[in-house]
Design a protein that fits this description.
This protein is mainly alpha-helical and 240 residues long. The chain has a domain at 48-196. It has helices at residues 41-57, 59-69, 91-118, 123-147, 153-160, 180-196, 207-210; strands at residues 74-77, 82-84, 165-167. Strands 2-1-3 form a 3-stranded antiparallel sheet, covered by helices on one side. Strand 1 and strand 2 (82-84) form a beta hairpin. Helix 2 (59-69) runs antiparallel to helix 3 and helix 4 (123-147) packs antiparallel against helix 6 (180-196). The chain is elongated and about 75 Å long.
Length: 240
């Protein structure tokens, strides 16, 4: 009688009750290890912080362009009060519209530059872009008030004199315009990443790791070519 070929300490590869070994290292986990070209979480966070800071600082440029391009609201004063020179004018609405259009343009540019420099998406980068865009919009709004006409209308009216036309301070009546930049930036960045972003590689595994055969020794034909159980006991010489 010959001994079975399968060692007693190793289960048979065709045991129906055997628990399959996980792909790869046999640890039972399907976690995908990062390759040499894939950034880790710390790198993603650093990139997100850079995007946040640069985008927020760009709000100063937004404020300067708003002061330059927004229509001016003319005021005129008398000895008793300050009035709108043109009561039917739409300059105030034009200032809000200019801010929204500039914010949309800044959203496109910031999203395109973030993708151009890093070539990938990720939750930290998207959060950094969204928060930085919102901070940039707030900074642009405040910068418009700083660099625009003075907010002290009474003092300005006394300085120029009665009957002299002067510009009203730059104001943002619709505060919802502050969301235009972050909304456009996140939407455009997600779209660009979906079309041209770097794809994550598919996890690799070997059939041998799943069927309990050491890596590199699995049959080339797949699981159907796995070796079967060893021959049974020798029946001995046949009697005539």
């Amino acid at each position: 009688m010959t001994a079975p070929l399968t060692p007693p300490h190793q289960p048979s590869p065709h045991d129906p009750w055997q628990t399959p070994v996980a792909y790869g290292d046999g640890s039972g986990s399907f976690a995908h290890s990062a390759g040499p070209d894939e950034p880790d979480l710390a790198t993603d966070i650093r990139r997100a912080v850079v995007v946040l800071v640069v985008t927020a600082v760009a709000g100063l440029l937004l404020g300067l362009l708003w002061v330059w391009l927004a229509p001016k609201v003319p005021l005129v004063s008398t000895d008793k009060a300050v009035f709108l020179k043109d009561t039917e004018g739409e300059e105030a609405a034009g200032a809000d519209g200019t801010f929204v259009l500039l914010s949309v343009g800044f959203g496109f540019v910031s999203a395109a530059l973030a993708f151009w420099f890093y070539r990938r998406g990720g939750i930290p980068l998207v959060i950094g872009l969204a928060v930085g865009s919102l901070m940039g919009a707030l900074l642009g709004w405040l910068a418009g008030g700083w660099f625009g006409p003075t907010a002290d209308v009474v003092a300005h009216a006394k300085a120029v004199g009665a009957g002299v036309v002067f510009d009203a301070p730059l104001k943002l009546e619709a505060k919802g315009a502050l969301l235009a930049w972050p909304f456009v930036a996140v939407l455009v960045h997600l779209g660009i990443t979906a079309v041209w972003g770097v794809r994550d590689p598919e996890p690799e595994f070997e059939w041998g790791a799943y069927y309990g055969v050491p890596a590199g020794s699995a049959p080339a034909g797949g699981p159907e070519d796995a070796p079967g159980p060893g021959p049974g006991p020798d029946p001995g010489p046949r009697q005539g």
